[in-house]
């Protein structure tokens, strides 16, 4: 499966170009790199000592501890980064057929960030907020499949909205879902300006002025125009509130143009929660012609895919903690975990294709199956003479309880 995404001969060629392989001896670089990508040395914490012990059990070629650790150098980090970029670019080129409400968008992307605990001695490289040091991983995840579409590794103290920049060809026609950590109207304006769409929960600190009502009600309904949003919603009996509200947007200086503050209207939808009776507000630029107010809540639920990405990554794929003190090795293990997760989610899509229509696989359960399957297959990758015919197929993996 990995070879269909990145041919093995390309890995060998790239390893030679980057200086990972200087001369061919007893160790083949392909099994070694695949071992790093697919092996978990613990439930949550990845360490080089754990990886070395796992290699001694399954590697096939005996490597002393110093020889094994010495191979985790900067050229290897660049090789793993290249492999991850290849898989990510392949996911970008893949188009997912969307139906119903989602057919109006080219793609649906959920993005968020998460912090990975690292040793406190790395505080000068990755400054933390809750602890001395922490690595923050910013990701774009395809909401319908869980595939990784974009990533960036920064310090924990780095702001979420600045984590991943925008380019017009990556934004136009796509719907972006994110939580209240990205609550800046200036951030929303970038997506809107590039022809993209966004949907997010409106934080309590935002209280914009209503400038227009999107839905005209019959009867003696009171007008909400020129009222602040929070004040207008007090005592309001409507199940659905759908208005245009004015927000302050900061436009940064660019070349000879000075920075400025402008007013920009965005659509705000307020829906009563069926259980608590609390009104939840959503900010978006999706026009009423593409999605009604009642469709905002189920549409926003797709954002949970990025939460699932980090939950499964931290509980079963090595994204929780990195027990290494060398910066480039930390990057190698973080990228390996991201690639491991993206492979697992793409494999889940292939397994789902074998199921009857309207059946799907729970990502958390799939990761458990995938990790167990990899343990047996790694032996066959590293020790071909010990490979056993397990008869594994996507259909069989999909049918496991």
Describe the structure.
The chain is α/β, with parallel strands linked by helices. The protein is built from 14 helices and eleven strands. The chain has helices spanning 2-5, 8-18, 29-38, 48-58, 65-70, 74-93, 168-171, 185-193, 229-233, 296-300, 304-316, 327-352, 363-382, 394-399; strands at residues 45-46, 107-117, 134-142, 148-155, 174-178, 197-201, 209-213, 240-251, 260-272, 279-284, 321-322. A nine-stranded mixed beta sheet has the order 4-3-2-5-6-10-9-8-7. It has a two-stranded parallel ribbon with strand order 1-11. Helix 2 packs across helix 6 (74-93) and helix 11 packs across helix 13 (363-382). The mean pLDDT is 85.
């Amino acid at each position: 499966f990995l070879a269909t995404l990145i041919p093995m001969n390309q890995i060998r060629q790239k390893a030679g170009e980057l200086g990972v392989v200087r001369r061919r001896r007893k160790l083949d670089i392909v099994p070694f790199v695949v071992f790093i990508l697919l092996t978990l040395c613990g439930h949550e914490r990845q360490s080089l000592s754990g990886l070395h012990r796992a290699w001694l059990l399954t590697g096939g070629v005996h490597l002393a501890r110093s020889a094994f650790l010495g191979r985790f150098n900067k050229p290897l980090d660049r090789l793993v980064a290249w492999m991850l970029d290849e898989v990510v670019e392949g996911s970008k080129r893949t188009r997912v057929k969307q139906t119903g409400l989602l057919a109006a968008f080219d793609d649906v992307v959920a993005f968020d960030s998460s912090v990975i605990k690292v040793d406190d001695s790395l505080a000068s490289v990755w400054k933390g907020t809750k602890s001395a040091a922490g690595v923050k991983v910013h990701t774009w995840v395809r909401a319908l499949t869980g595939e990784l579409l974009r990533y960036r590794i920064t310090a924990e103290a780095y702001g979420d909205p600045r984590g991943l920049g925008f380019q017009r060809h990556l934004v136009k026609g796509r719907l972006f879902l994110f939580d209240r950590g990205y609550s800046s109207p200036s951030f929303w304006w970038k997506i809107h300006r590039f022809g993209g769409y966004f949907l997010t929960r409106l934080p309590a600190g935002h209280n914009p002025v209503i400038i227009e009502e999107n839905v005209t009600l019959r009867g003696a309904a009171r007008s909400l125009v020129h009222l602040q949003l929070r004040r207008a919603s007090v005592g309001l009996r409507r199940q659905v509130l759908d208005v245009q509200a004015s927000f302050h947007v900061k436009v940064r200086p660019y070349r000879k143009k000075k920075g400025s503050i402008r007013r920009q209207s965005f659509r705000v939808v307020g829906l009563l929660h069926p259980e608590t009776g609390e009104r939840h507000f959503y900010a978006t630029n999706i026009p009423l012609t593409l999605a009604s107010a009642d469709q905002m809540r189920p549409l926003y639920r797709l954002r949970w895919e990025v939460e699932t990405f980090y939950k499964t990554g931290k509980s079963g794929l090595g994204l929780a903690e990195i027990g290494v003190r060398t910066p480039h090795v930390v990057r190698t293990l973080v990228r390996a975990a991201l690639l491991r997760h993206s492979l697992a989610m793409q494999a889940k899509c292939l397994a789902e294709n074998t199921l009857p229509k309207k059946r799907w696989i729970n990502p958390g359960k799939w990761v458990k199956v995938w990790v167990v399957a990899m343990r047996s297959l790694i032996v066959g990758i590293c020790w071909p003479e010990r490979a056993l015919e397990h008869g594994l197929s996507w259909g069989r993996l999909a049918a496991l309880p």
